[in-house]
Amino acid sequence: MTVCQAVSKRIKDLLKEKRMTQYRLEKKSNVLHGSLNCIMRCKNKTVNLNTIMMIAKGFDMSVLEFLNDPVFFSEELEIEY
Question: What is the distance, to the nearest Å, from the Cα of residue 56 to the centroid of all Cα atoms in its chain?
Answer without folding.
Answer: 8
